[in-house]
TrEMBL record:
It comes from Puniceispirillum marinum (strain IMCC1322). GO terms for cellular component: cytosol. Catalyzes the phosphorylation of ribose at O-5 in a reaction requiring ATP and magnesium. The resulting D-ribose-5-phosphate can then be used either for sythesis of nucleotides, histidine, and tryptophan, or as a component of the pentose phosphate pathway. GO terms for molecular function: ATP binding; metal ion binding; ribokinase activity. Transmembrane segments: none annotated. The lineage of its organism: Bacteria, Pseudomonadati, Pseudomonadota, Alphaproteobacteria, Candidatus Puniceispirillales. K(+) binds at residues 249, 283, 286, 288, 292. Signal peptide: none annotated. Gene3D superfamilies: 3.40.1190.20. This is Ribokinase. It catalyses: D-ribose + ATP = D-ribose 5-phosphate + ADP + H(+). Substrate binds at residues 11-13, 39-43, 140, 253. Homodimer. It is an enzyme of class 2 (transferase).
C-alpha cells in the first residue's frame, strides 16, 4: 500500500446553513446546524485513506472532546495518527456559513493548539516522512513549518504536494520545493496576480506558478473541474458530476487527498487528476467535510461510468 504523510490541522467544523450571511449586529434564523470533523490536513488524510492510501497525519490536538472526535474519525477512515496532545490549549474549530440555495461556503478557522506546531513535529516524524511516497501540507499550520517539512521531504527524495490554502504570501523558494501545487481560483490569483475566470486564465496562472519553481500546477476550478499543467502537458479535466450539489465544503480536500492517493499508487498525474475530480464530484453531493469523502469503491464506480 502506498504511503502518504500529511502535515496539517484538525478542526471541529460547526456548520450553519442559512439564506445569507448576517450583517454586523444582525441576528437571523438559520435552516440547519451540523457538527463534524474538518481541517484541511485532516480532511485530506481521510480522503487519501478512503481512496486506498496508507495515510499518516502529523498534527497537535488538545485533550478535549474535539480531540476525541479527531481520533475517532481517523480510526474509522484508516488514518494513522502521528500526533501529540497538549492540555495548555484547545483542539481547533471552524465556523462555516453555508448558503442554503447554492451550497457555497465561507469559513473562519481557529487552529487552537495546532497553531503551535513547530519544526520539532517534523523532526520527530523525519523517518516517517523519509519513507513516504508523497508528503502533503497546506497553510493552516505555521507557514515556516510547512516549508521545513517540504525541505525535509525534498532532501529525502519524497514527492511533495502543497495545497496553498488558506491563501497566503509564500516565502521565496517555497514553490521550488513542490512537485505539485494545487490552488483554487482565488488562491491562484493571490499567488500570481492573475485573475482566474476561465480555462485560459487558469493556464496562464499555472504557467506563472511553474515559472516560480513548481514542478506542476493544478488549478482546481470548482464546477469547471481542474486545469493540469507541467513541463510537457496542459489539460483541462472537466468536473465529474455525481448528483445534486449539497455542500462544497471539503471538495478541494477530497480532490487533494484522492489525487495524492492515485499518484502514490502509480497513476500518471493526468489520470490522478481525473481520479481526484471523480472523488470531489461525489463529495459535494453530501453534507460535511471529512464525512463527505468517498470510498475507493465509490470513486472506481464513478470512473467506470465515464
Amino acid at each position: 500500500m502506498s504511503s502518504i504523510v500529511i502535515l496539517g490541522i484538525f478542526v471541529a467544523d460547526t456548520a450553519y446553513r442559512a439564506e445569507r450571511i448576517p450583517r454586523l449586529g444582525e441576528t437571523i434564523l438559520g435552516k440547519s446546524f451540523n457538527l463534524s470533523p474538518g481541517g484541511k490536513g485532516s480532511n485530506q488524510a481521510v480522503a487519501a485513506a478512503k481512496a486506498g492510501a496508507n495515510a499518516h497525519m502529523i498534527t497537535r490536538l488538545g485533550t478535549d472532546t474535539f480531540a476525541d472526535m479527531a481520533i475517532d474519525v481517523w480510526q474509522k477512515a484508516g488514518v494513522t495518527p502521528a500526533i501529540t496532545q497538549h492540555d495548555n490549549s484547545y483542539t481547533g474549530a471552524a465556523c462555516i456559513f453555508i448558503e442554503a440555495e447554492t451550497g457555497n461556503n465561507a469559513i473562519i478557522v481557529t487552529p487552537g493548539v495546532a497553531g503551535e506546531i513547530d519544526n520539532s513535529d517534523i523532526d520527530r516524524n523525519a523517518d516517517l516522512i523519509a519513507n513516504a511516497d508523497i508528503f502533503i501540507t497546506q497553510l493552516e499550520q505555521p507557514l515556516e513549518v510547512a516549508m521545513y517539512g517540504l525541505e525535509l521531504a525534498r532532501k529525502k527524495g519524497v514527492r511533495t504536494l502543497l495545497n496553498p490554502a488558506p491563501a497566503a504570501d509564500l516565502p521565496d523558494g517555497m514553490l521550488a520545493l513542490c512537485d505539485f501545487v494545487t490552488p483554487n481560483e482565488t488562491e491562484a490569483e493571490g499567488l500570481t496576480g492573475i485573475k482566474v475566470t476561465s480555462v485560459a486564465s487558469a493556464t496562464d496562472a499555472a504557467q506563472a506558478l511553474r515559472a516560480s519553481g513548481a514542478g506542476a500546477a493544478i488549478i482546481t476550478l470548482g464546477e469547471n473541474g481542474a486545469l493540469y499543467h507541467d513541463a510537457d502537458t496542459t489539460i483541462h479535466m472537466p468536473a465529474m458530476s455525481s448528483g445534486k450539489v449539497i455542500e462544497t465544503t471539503g471538495a478541494g480536500d477530497s480532490f487533494n487527498g484522492s489525487f495524492a492517493a492515485a499518484l502514490a499508487e502509480g497513476m500518471t498525474p493526468v489520470d490522478a487528476v481525473k481520479f481526484g475530480c471523480a472523488a470531489a464530484g461525489i463529495s459535494v453531493t453530501r453534507a460535511g467535510a471529512a464525512n463527505s469523502m468517498p470510498s475507493r469503491a465509490e470513486i472506481d464506480a464513478r470512473l467506470a461510468q465515464g
